Amino acid sequence: WRAPWPGGRILHVAVAGLLLQAGYLGGVWSAIKIGMPAGLSALIVGMQPILTAVAAPLIGERVRPRQWLGLALGLAGVALVVYAKLDLAHLSALPIVYCVLALLSITAGTMYQKRYCPQFDLRTGTVIQFGATVAALLPLALLFEGFDLSLSTVEWNVHFVGALLWSVFALSIGAIFLLFRLISRSAATEVTSLLYLTPPTTAIMAWLLFGEALGPLGLAGMAVAVAGVAFVVNKEKR
């Protein structure tokens, strides 16, 4: 039992991985580290579905008027969900630059993968993408972050281990596998529109796990975001 390698598309798979992993995640985490509010970060990156729709003709996809309406509704819903948590005090330009770079990276990565390597074995493909990301980011971590390869400076506790396990298995493996499967089977605009559901889902999880309040504005935003996604992904009846 052997997983097939993508052959002549290895370079394309690696480039897509650099954009989706190093560019997107590196940009978002760098922005948050230097003071970007999580709500504003979600709002900026939440523009990805619209940016993808604008670029869709480059990969031969057409966005219908109904989908444009859904994209606008989805972005409005995200804005309503994160509005109450926006804190723009003492915010500098650099975190915004990092978030915009992350937005451009995930959009370009999605389009690039859809155009050049939509189909590949998820096991070998993710090995290539994660390997390329490590090669790109590890030198930067050693240079700028004071990263210790021996991990002697890491404070191992239940919270850190739990967050690490979630990041590895739920995000880096589970979410990425689902994203790649969707990219291979659906239009790029339909796939990226699902990201509008991230802030509402996060708000619900925060309510369940941490007791954070869900105000009327946030609940309305969730409904608007869900309606927007439905407009985008539902096929028109002929």
- First and last CA, distance: 44 Å
Total of helices: 10
Number of domain units: 1
Strand count: 0
Which parts are unreliable, with pLDDT below 50 for 5 consecutive residues or more?
Answer: none
The Rg value, from CA coordinates, equals 19 Å
Largest sheet: none
Write the element-wise H/E pattern from the N-terminal end onward: HHHHHHHHHH
Work out the strand percent: under 5%
Helix content range: over 70%
What coarse outline follows from CA principal-axis ratios? Answer: globular
Mean pLDDT: 88
Structural class: mainly alpha
Structure, explained:
With about 240 residues, the protein is an all-alpha fold. It has one domain (about 5-145, about 155-235). About 70% of the residues lie in helices and about 0% in strands. The chain has 10 helices and no strands. The protein is globular and about 50 Å long.
Quickly describe the structure.
Helices cover 72% and strands 0% of the residues. It has 10 helices and no strands.
Key descriptive features of the protein:
10 helices, single chain, 238 residues, mainly alpha, 0% strand
Topology of helices and strands:
Layout lengths: L9 H24 L4 H8 L2 H8 L9 H19 L9 H24 L5 H23 L13 H28 L2 H6 L4 H13 L5 H18 L5
Helix pairs in contact: 1-5, 1-6, 2-4, 3-5, 4-10, 9-10
